[in-house]
Amino acid sequence: MQLVNSGNAAIFIALHTCKQLGIKKVLIPKEGGWFSYKHYPKLLDLEVIEVETNWSLLDLEDLKKKADKDSVLLFSTIGGYFVKQDLKQIEKLNIKKIADNTAGYGKLKVEADFEVASFGKNKPANLGYGGMIKSKHQLDETLLTLFKFPEAMQEALQQKINDLPNRWKFLQEKRRELMKLVKNFDIIHKDKFGINIMLKGIDEKAIKILKGNNIPFLICPKYHRVKKKGISIEIKTFNI
Questions:
Q1: φ, ψ for residue 133 (rounded to 5)?
Q2: Which residues contact 183 (CB under 8 A, 6 or more apart)?
Q3: For residue 110, how many other CB atoms are within 10 A of its CB?
Q4: In angstroms, rounded to a whole number, what is the distance separating the alpha carbons of residues 126 and 22?
């Protein structure tokens, strides 16, 4: 594992390495990803192709149609922070993969050419700074130096990593608690693993309940959650 100064830096290094390996296309989820998924490939003159999703859950059939030897899949292990992808099926695909495990860090194990994660604010490992990259391929030492993680912050990061079991327990308990609070609304992928909760549509009654209980939420459509009308209950912003 290589530490870097941000999750975005880790994504850029992974994409740069893919280009060096001859990759020409980057497959990204149509929704439920991160903003740099769309922009960073273009900086490297790589084509961006969106894969269909079902409320941030990757459509595996569409993915199989679009995947080939010239492409890499860049995806979040937990789409929009509320729906875990079918990692076992994705692992079977014979293409290169960049698994952004920010939302599942410390909980999900992934098998990919690259695993990247952010340790930013409101992440599972919420140091507020930094990221990491694991790779099966040689990484550019110049980029690793350019995006170096400061030694002075390594002890603080280790404390956050050591505390991940407690933070995950807290987040999952909070999710169960809030699932009960909004049980009468249309919860998307409610039986899938995640951190946040996504409600279908923009229901004023739901908004009133959330505001009344000081529960943070986002109104969608938003690329990093869903591109449809919905309410994302932002459990990931809670701290112990």
A1: -140, 135
A2: none
A3: 20
A4: 34
The single residue listed with the structure tokens 């439920």 is 32
Q: CB count, 10 Å around CB of 201?
A: 13
222 exposure class (CB count in 10 Å sphere: 0-12, 13-18, 19+) = middle
Bridge partners, 29 (sequence order): 51
pTM: 0.96
User: What would the mean pLDDT of 162-176 be, rounded to a whole number?
Assistant: 98
Tracing tokens 């099966």 back to the chain, one arrives at: 136
pLDDT single digits (tens) 11-27: 999 999 999 999 999 99
Sorting pLDDT into bands at 50, 70 and 90, what band is 240? confident
Helices (H), the chain: 7-20, 36-43, 60-66, 87-92, 141-146, 154-162, 164-181, 204-212
Cα 22 from Cα 140, distance rounded (Å): 15
pLDDT in tens, 93-118: 999 999 999 999 999 999 999 999 99
User: Which pLDDT band holds residue 204 (cuts at 50, 70, 90)?
Assistant: very high
Can you read off the two tokens belonging to residue 46? 């790589």
Give the position of tokens 């140091």.
127
Helix (H, G, I), strand (E, B) or coil at 49: strand
Structure-token pair, residue 57? 């859950």
